[in-house]
Amino acid sequence: MPDPSAELESASTADGLTEDRWLGGRLMLTQRKRGHRVGTDAALLVAATGDARQGRIVDVGAGVGAVGLALAQRSSLASVDLLEIDPEVAALAKGNAERNGLQSRTRVLRLDILNPRARREAGLAESAGCVVTNPPFFDAKAVRASPDESKARAHVLAGAEAGATLADWIQASVAILAPGGRFVMIHRPDALGAILAGIGGRLGSLALLPVHPTIGASAHRLLVSGVRGSKAPLRIAPGLILHQVDGRLTVEADAIHRGERLIEWGA
After folding, report:
1. Mean pLDDT of 119-147
2. 3-class secondary structure per residue, 188-225
3. pTM here?
């Protein structure tokens, strides 16, 4: 059950867009009124990447830029690349960077993450201290895509290679990391096999953090973190519960939605 405090403070415009105050009003976002919109997954990803204090952050599949811009806003020592394939959404991300006074530390790159040549030409190879991503949740062969093109891009994997998979997306994202860089992702728990296949031996210090909609419910999201070049073993972090039995956000989840709390990954 949604909680009112988790919703965006939103005002509609005449051109099919909304102007929203997100993370407790910390970030101003313009986004499409219909189709994929910024929500809980983005807030969780921001909170899970709380220690990215300096260097270059790359947000892969950035959409309107919510996650990357929130991380850049958190630290004046960080700069961010927002990677987005949809030209209209990329334009919104650029406007959002300007709207929040972050344009001097933000690049918006309209490219296909699954295209190695595009990554090289953009100077992305092994360049990032941190990569964050909320990949499309489904492979093109597994579901029928939405007729809304923007929503389909957000939810269904597509790209340079026909039949692209989540493992391909992860490998392309990790290729951007510099040695010692950190990778953080949110996805579905039932995709764990594909996630581990994509990571292979590319990351160490791997941590998995399940997110549960309510007490006693199975996890419906999985946060993943790892460090390129680390040899530390995999571990399961303590889970996060979003809602109380009455449907209200838990104290921790409410603070995460307001941008007031980071996710604890444990020791």
Report:
1. 79
2. CHHHHHHHHHHHCCCEEEEEEEEEEEECCCCCCEEEEE
3. 0.88
Residue with tokens 């210090």: 205
pLDDT-based confidence at residue 156 (cuts at 50, 70, 90): low
Task: Return the closest-CA partner of residue 160 out of 110, 109, 115.
Answer: 115
First to last CA, the chain: 31
Domains along the chain with CATH numbers: 39-257 (3.40.50.150)
Is residue 44 within 8 A of residue 186, CB to CB? The reply is yes
Q: How far apart are CA 2 and CA 10, in angstroms?
A: 16
d(CA 65, CA 108): 9
Q: Give the residue from 142, 140, 66, 47 showing the smallest Cα distance to 106.
A: 66
Weakest mean pLDDT among 79-93, 128-142, 146-160, 167-181: 146-160
DSSP secondary structure string for all residues of 128-154: EEEEEE---SEETTTSPPPSSHHHHHH
Alpha carbons 41 and 47: distance in angstroms, whole number: 10
